Amino acid sequence: MTRPAPFLLVALTLSLLLSAGCGSSRSFVTGTGTGATVGTRTLQSLTVIPSSADAQKFPANQVQFTVTGTFTVSPVTVMSPAVRWSIGNPFATPTPAISIALSSQPSIDANGLAQCNGFVGIATVVATAPVDPTGSLIQMTAITPHVSGTASLICP
To answer: Most CB atoms within 10 A, among 18, 81, 93, 115?
Structure first.
C-alpha cells in the first residue's frame, strides 16, 4: 500500500521536529510544505551597552558593560550571552588581561567591568563570541567563526 505524498511530508516534518527536540538545542525547522529545511541557530551580531562611556562619570571610575546578542532563530535577542571581553584585539598575545598587570593599561574582567588603571585616552572595549552558540569561549581563536561588538571607554 502506498501512502499519499501529504502523509510523507507530515511524517518527515514530524520526524525533523522530534529530532530537533533531542540532543542539540540548536536545531530548528523552518518553512512549510515542501520548502521545509533544517538549520542551526547562529549568532549574527553583538551590541555592547553603553556604546561609549566616560569612566569618571561612573562609581569608582569603573564601567559595567553588557552585551545583547542577535540570533537567527528564537529567541532572536538574548541579553548577556557568553562572550569574551577584551580591550582591543581579543586574540592578541599576550592576552589583554595579562598585559594590564605589566603596565597602566585599561582592563576589563570576564563580566564586562572595565577600568582605566591610570591610562589616559580612549580604549576600545570588545565583546567576542563564536557564531555557534554551543562553541567554547576558551577554545575560540582568530580563525573560529565569530562576531564582535565594540564600545568606547573614555579614560580621563
So the answer is: 115
